[in-house]
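REQUEST FORM: STRUCTURE PREDICTION
Request ID: SP-0412
Submitted by: Lab K.M.
Chain count: 1
Length (residues): 331
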Amino acid sequence: MKRIPIAFATGAIVLAFSIFAAGCAKPAPVVIVGVAKFVSHPALDALEKGVIESIKAAKPGIALDLQNSNADMGTAAQIARRFADEKVAVAVGIATPTAQALANAIKTIPVVYCAVTDPVAAGLVASLDKGGPNITGSSDMTPLNEQLDLLIRLKPIKRLGHVYNAGEANSSRIAELVKEYCAVKGIEFVGATVANSSEVKQAALSIADRVDGIYLSTDNTVFSAIDAVAEVALERKLPVITADPSSAETVPVLGALGYDYYAMGLATGKIVVKILDGAKTTDIPAYIPSDPKEMLLVLNLDVAAKIGIAIPKELADRAAILVENGAIRRK
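STATUS: Completed
RESULT:
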C-alpha cells in the first residue's frame, strides 16, 4: 500500500475539520432595525419611506421590522415591547405617540424619534442641542406663523377653526401656539377636539358655520381622516391650509406649507446609520430642517376656484407644486 505523506495527511485532516466546523457554525446574528409609525397617512408614509431607503442605501444587509400601531396607543406599547424583546439594534418611532411608547419601554437600546414636533415637551430629551442617554432624532416643529400668515393672505380671517386630538402631545402644543397667534392678530380661535379618526368629520361640521377658514397641523388622528375635513370645507366654501404638503397633492385643500417629509425621513435614516456605525445618541443633536429646499408650498388652483379665492400670481410662482385641472404640476 502506498504511504501518504504526513504533511498532506495533516493538511487533509485540518481541511476536513474546517469544512465540518464551518457547516456546524451558527450563522452570524441578523442586525434588525425596528421602525414603527403611529398610523398610515401621507406624511407618515413619506417619512417611513425615507427612513427605509436611507438605511437600506447605507446598510443593505440590515433587516427591518416595520410596524404600524393604527393610531392605538395600546398597540404602540405592544410594538415597543416587541422591539425590546427582539433586541433590535435601533428602534425608530415615527410621530410623537410612537416615539413616546418606545422611549417608555426601551432603556438600553438606541431609540430614534422621527418628526416629533417638540421632543422636549414630549419628555423625550432635555434639550434639542444633544440627545439623551439612548435617544435622539428629528423634529418637525412646524413654521406655524408662516402657515397662518399664508391663510390670512389668501382670505381675511376673523374666526379660525382648528381640529386636533388633544391627546397627542404634539397637537396640544401646536394648539397652544395657534391660540397665541390668534390672540396677537385679534382672531377668534374656534377649536374642535377629537379622540379618534371617526370623530373628525363631525368635529369639522361642528365648527364649519362658525369660522372663516381652517388650519390643520400635522395631527396624526386628523390626517388619517383629512378627506372628511376637505369635504366639509368645500361644501361650506372654506379655505383650509395645512402643515402637510404630502397630502395636499391629492386631498382637495386650498394649500399647504410644510416640510418635505420624505427628505426628513432620509435625514432620520442617516441618524440611524450613524448609531449603527457606533455614534452615541448623546452626541447627536435633534435634526431640524433648515434648508429652504426642505420646505414645500403646495397650492390647489382648482379648490381656489371652487371656493372663490384668487391666488396671487406671486404665491403661485413661489409654489413648488400646483394642482390645476386635476393635474399635479411640480416645478
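NOTES: The two ends are 85 Å apart (CA to CA).
Reviewed by: T.R.
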